[in-house]
Design brief:
Elements lengths: L1 H28 L7 H16 L4 H20 L8 E2 L4 H8 L4 H8 L1 E6 L2 E6 L5 H72 L9 H6 L6 H5 L7
Antiparallel strand pairs: 1-3, 2-3
């Protein structure tokens, strides 16, 4: 009895340990609070609502790509001062970042601030903490990948529509050709039937009861006197 109780206790302890290990594993995979969640949501709102929805698509995608380039330049070469700023009077920057909706706002969220240097205005990245820059860059990559997939699906759908239209056009043409072919066959059969009927009427034999006299009479013209005169000569 004691041995059974001992085995049961060991089994129960093993089961408790297994449940605890599973719970610890789940806890290790669970993050109760993401400190960057709010920041990501803010970046996403600017991307979706202010940049993508408020600009022409080509300009919006160009703005996202330019902002990502500005962010990656700083992340990859943080010591290069010239890569940590941009000049709003630059024609390309002016068109893509300054004049397009939402792009300058996003640059400010990344950490760029307006300042004057040598009587000229620049936007310069000034934060030592690059956490916002990392988050903003990742959101830009995500948005560009998402929009690229949309474009690819759009091209695929348009390709399918074009192929479907070509198939429908080919089917209509084939149906027209089949109709002409069937009509030609029907016309030929009707013509053959007419020719066969005409030939049959010409080749119809003389009724068997017809007399030699009746055949002899064909082709001869009779007068009234001939009809009233008996063949023997008596009237």
């Amino acid at each position: 009895m004691s041995s059974r109780a001992g085995r049961a206790a060991v089994a129960a302890a093993a089961e408790r340990r297994l449940r605890q290990e599973r719970a610890d594993s789940l806890l290790a995979c669970y993050t109760p609070f993401d400190e960057n969640h709010g920041k990501r949501q803010e970046f996403r709102r600017v991307i979706d609502r202010d940049i993508l929805e408020s600009n022409a698509r080509d300009l919006a995608l160009e703005a996202l790509a330019t902002l990502l380039t500005l962010a990656e330049n700083i992340l990859q070469s943080p010591g290069k001062e010239k890569l940590c700023k941009f000049r709003p009077s630059n024609p390309k920057i002016k068109r893509i970042i300054i004049e397009s909706k939402g792009a300058l706002q996003y640059a400010i969220l990344l950490g760029f601030r307006e300042e004057a240097m040598n009587y000229e205005t620049y936007y310069r990245f000034h934060k030592k903490d690059k956490s916002d820059l990392h988050v903003g860059a990742s959101m830009l990559r995500e948005a560009l990948q998402r929009e690229k997939k949309k474009d690819e699906r759009g091209l695929h759908d348009r390709g399918q529509e074009q192929r479907a239209a070509e198939v429908a056009k080919a089917n209509i043409r084939q149906a027209f050709l089949d109709d002409r072919k069937n009509k030609a066959i029907l016309d030929r059969k009707e013509k053959q039937c007419r020719l066969a009927g005409s030939a049959g009427s010409r080749d119809t034999p003389e009724p068997r009861g017809a007399s030699m006299e009746s055949r002899a009479c064909r082709g001869k013209i009779y007068t009234l006197h001939d009809l009233l005169t008996d063949p023997s000569g008596d009237v």
